[in-house]
Amino acid sequence: MKKIIAVSIIALMAIALVPQLHFAFAQESKTGAKQYINLRAEVWNEFFRMTTAAFTVGAVVSGTMIWLVWRFRESHPKNKTPTRWEGMDDPTTGSYGEGH
Amino acid sequence: MVLELKKARPVWQIMFSTHHTDVGLLYTVTGLAFLFMAGVLALMIRTHLFFPGQNFLISDSVTFNRIFTVHGLTMLFLFALPVANGIGNYLVPIMVRYKDMAYPKLNAVAFWMNPIGGALLWLGFSDTSWVSYAPYSVIRAPGPAADMMIFGLKILGISSILSSINFIVTIIKCKHPDLPLRRVPLFAWSMLTVSLMTIIAMPTYAAALIMLLTDRLGVSGFFNPSLGGDPIAYLHLFWFTFHPEVYIFLLPAIGMMYELIPRFSRKPLYSQGSGVFAFVMLGIIGFASWGHHMYSTGMDFTTKVVFMIGTLAAVPASGMHVFNFLATMWGGRIRFAAPMKFAVGGIALFFSAGAGGVLNSAMPLDFISHGTYWVVGHMHLFLTGTIAFGFVGMVYYMFPFITGRMYSEKLANVHFILMLWGTVQVFFTQHLLGLAGMARRIYDYPPEYTSWVELNQIATVGAWILGAGFVAFLANLLYYSSKGKEANMDDPFGLGGKYYYPYQAKNPHHASGY
Question: What is the reported pTM?
Answer without folding.
Answer: 0.90
